[in-house]
Amino acid sequence: MLADAVILWRAERDVVLRIAGVFFLLPVLALAMLLTRLPEMAEASSQAEMLATFRAFYTANFAWLLLVSLAVDFGSFVLLNLFLHGNRTVRDLLLASLARFVPFVLLGFVTGTVVNLGFALWVLPGIYLFGRSWMMGAAYAGEPERGFLAAIERGFRLSAGNGWRIALLGCGTVAVMGSAALVLAILTQAITLLAGGAAWVQAIMLVPVAAAGAAAYIAFTLVRVAIYRRLAGSISGT
């Protein structure tokens, strides 16, 4: 499946980079710049203080965080449509994705809530539920004739017997790409401190961090599509 993801990347690299630059790179950069306003979280002396600091930050920046989330979701949906339908101009991709975007967001909210409930019980249930639900968004994008509820059923059926394997591939992709972004973030902080905390140095150094985050979203979507195409093909007999 990873080889399939590489093939998809090579076939659509130019379009992917254009879409990712707008809907992944810029939002992740904006998020990174917002997070630089949380230096007091590292100074919190207790978990209660840390939670209070985070809650205040979230409340004060809710609108921006929502815009970042919607932009990333839209970029993911556009890429799903690109890989699963292809042969469209960027304009057609954007318009087609916009027309069906609201149910995709709702689907992500539903599946995210289910996965979070699983993690609330323990780590393993959360990971398993992620594996069983990850294909639902891909099914919604890949099979436009299916509605919201039908996409949930289709995704759940596709993952039957493959929940742990899907979860391993998805979480593994996040772990590898997320680790790279984390290392860059640590380097950014260290270089900024060496430069005397200069804001312009931090702003410049956040660009590669955002690029790593954008690359993680691309890789995550590529693996998601590769898995979906393999499972959908095996069930349909193609």
From TrEMBL:
Q: Indicate whether Membrane appears among the record's keywords.
A: yes
**Keywords, in A-Z order:** Membrane, Transmembrane, Transmembrane helix
Q: What residue intervals traverse the membrane?
A: 15-35, 56-84, 104-130, 166-187, 199-220
Query: Protein name, please?
Result: Glycerophosphoryl diester phosphodiesterase membrane domain-containing protein
Q: To which species is this protein native?
A: Sphingomonas turrisvirgatae
